[in-house]
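Forwarding the complex inputs:
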Amino acid sequence: MSEETIQKELENKFSGLKGKITIKRKRRIYVDVTDDIFHNVFAFIVKDLKFPILCTITGLDEGETFGAVYHLASEDGIVLNLKNHVPRANPVFRTISEYFPGGIIYERELVDMFGAKVEGLPPGPRYPLPDGWPDGQFPLRKDWKADMLDKKPEDVKNE
Amino acid sequence: MSFVSRMINWARIKSPWIIHFNTGACNACDIEIIAALTPRYDIERFGIQLKGTPRHADVLVCSGPVTRQIEKRLVRIYEQMAEPKFVVACGTCSCSGGVFNGCYNVKGGINEVIPVSAFIPGCPVRPEAIIDGVVKLLGSLEKAAALPSPED
Amino acid sequence: MSNVKIPIGPQHPALKEPASFTITLNGERILSMDLRLGYNHRGIEKACEERSYIQCMYLLERVCGICSHSHSTAFIQAVEELAGLEVPKRGLYIRTLVAELERIHSHLLWLGVAGHEVGFDTLLMYSWRDREVVMDLLAALTGNRVNYGMNTVGGVRRDISPDQIKDIQKGLDILEERTKYYVEVATEETTLIERLSGVGYLSPEDARNLGAVGPTGRGSQVDRDVRRDDPYASYGDVSFKVITDDHNDVYGRTLVRVKELFETYGIIRQLLKNMPDGPIAVKAPRRIPAGEALSRYEAPRGEDVHFVKSNGTDKPERVKVRAPTMANLQAVAKMLENNRLADVPIIVAAIDPCFSCTDRSIQIKDPSGGNTGVMSWSQIREYGINWYKKHGIDFKSKGL
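Prediction (whole assembly, three chains):
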């Protein structure tokens, strides 16, 4: 399937995606979705459009929202970067581990580094921060600075 | 120095046993330390042996910067070694934190945590530099052995 | 038989992304494994947000000291895409050349480490001695044995001379001879074959589901290689086979790596023969226009993924690195199932974690409330070697 065909299939199935799909170059497609349709789009891409590889999940601090980009690859080397957003005030994603058991570790990173929640994530040890890392400190948030590690939790909350 | 101390020192200089410890880096220095053991560089001709436990070692060879979670274990390993003991910081990261200085999980070089006898810079440290550094350390031990002690 | 839980935990990282494996044993056999990662967390992605793109490249080179060029190139490719730069062909060829030379050094390194883990130290000494051939070539070409600093935004920093090309060709001849010997060892040395076969089984389906990449995946018939599937640098200009194996075990992973060496020699010969003339880099802006780019690279260990988000300044907005060992560690839990404790070192080493773990600690707990002991990695390695000696597999007794 070519990049253009993939774009058409997505736009046909999900009218809300019109204007949200960019083909930046050969083998690179970017799709921007909202959380309400994310899971249906994800399932469609993985199963119907045949993207069996999850390269990784990138968390993003976008200010008012948190983003998560799911980098999916096909056997032909096409990468589809699917970006979802959730509000910063209530950053809850739902797990995709039923499609990719290997993706659990990437979702744990969203929890540790951004303070997001991932519904449906099976219980398990944190990643990547060490045990004893202070609560409430999320390194990849834009408003977090390294010197916060040596401050008291109350001071951090007030910053 | 008394005769026994001189004997012990001689044995240490002639055949120092080292333990290698990686405190959280990219492994380039670790590879070069192992490479120093392989035929091209062959550090074993100096009688140097790589041991698995700190209790048998004279020299602690460290690579990597000190990360927050490794700090306690590094101190524990240092304390498990019997006196006299020496620490060699291999590579720029163990000397000063190197390229990871400023990263939130990195404290700095090895000397932030334990006393260091020899600093060998390099990114990564070359096997020849490791040999040079260790030989210099042995040389300084020899000088210390030659000093008269109150017991004489 | 009571179940014994064994946490194998590095209290310090020797792996690039070291793991703590909690293994539940039934007698000698491993029933299940829980994985705890993250002991080597340094905070590199955050640090990248406070550094210029060139500084980030030098930092990312040191994510892993064995595949440093992989990370450097994967990153710089994303930046070049964001800046809309077209790297001159000669620059791409040199970049690819260093990449393949790195693959040689990494696979030979792995061969030695694998030998060491099973007690075949002669293999360690031979392969690391031969590895010095390629280390010398890399040092002559780039100025350093590791962490080459070869890339810049827009191309490479050093050109290659006709004499260096001749040296590389001579070096390849030597390496090819030596690699033939390693193929013989891998396919005819029964002691080694017995030690590696049937160990660390990973079905093709599990390999796919758990996202195994590189030789680990290809050793279980996962026919994926970024160089062929999503070509970058000069891989579109060269022809090579992607090596897979159907043993689905550690032996298969060994064969894949050794045979891949021959493909690499072939790729390098093609690159040298067809090296185009011209500049090696284009000028790059300091500020990179806003955008997002996803770069993939086939590191010696497997697929390396870098995602870069730029914001129009001279520093990246976000850098995400997914190194190959990360993807393979998840498959290790599956691989250890039903294997013996004695096989733990070679199974873990067979995914080629960034470096052999010299100091992972193993705590042995007896659920009936008995003794608790701590074993270091070297102790469990000794345990494995001695177990096999008792069962007739001994490299030293065969004069190896």
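Confidence is low (pLDDT under 50) at residues 9-19, 355-372 of chain C.
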